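TA notes. Do not distribute before section.
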Amino acid sequence: MASIFGIINKYKGQLNLLPILILIFVAATILVYVFFNREPKFKYFPALVGILGGLILMWVGSMNFTTDNGLRWVWYGVATFVAGCVGLGTAWLLALFTSMPGMGDFSKKTRRSVGKGGPKPRTAKKPANRPTTRSTAKARRRGDE
């Protein structure tokens, strides 16, 4: 058990890489979705970059696997690949939430036009402006209370 803690203490600086990369890829996915929400496929771009970049880094590291530098490249590749997969999961969750009714379009026009009863049909007619006639005996006047 002491040897496990010794390994963790030895490589503690490199263990911070994975959560930081995960936060970067999740934030990048959300930012790409916010800025390019007209094109829904763009939200998958950071995940694609992370997964392909991780595979490339692992391949480069595997060429010199027996050296310290090769192991470092493989570790960076695995961390980047995992962060890319988490970014892909984030993009899928965004796609799931936006496919739910009422969650897709957040434009001001949609929020103003859709009320509790839903949008009004275009064929609905406005009520006619007809003057109403009341007899003066039944009408309330100011001061009559």
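Switch to the second chain here.
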Amino acid sequence: MNDRTPAAGAHRPPVSSAPPAVPVAGARTLRRSALWAGLLFLPATASVWIAAVATERGGRCLTYGACGDVPGPLFQATLVVAGAAWLAALTTPGGAPPSRARWAALWTLVAAELSFLSLVLGHYTG
């Protein structure tokens, strides 16, 4: 459409594309923290289980079935809450600072995991 070349002195603005959205440091920190909290949950559960079974009461629980009474739905509820909070914290968009709800999801994840670990400990030693 415009086949003419610009005159020697005419200034042509450089063609630039918008730079890609750089992740905000807070969003990156939140995602990294949530990722590590979720990934370390299984080793933490195994460590708590080994520590609980290593006690006298835990060994009796494992051998004879004389375990503490912790209802199964309570175990499941903490796992569901932890899973939902993990997803909420991991899906933080990278181009904007994370909202307070995302940070609350991270701390809910940590609290749910600690609750689950204390339930495992209580089941084998209680």
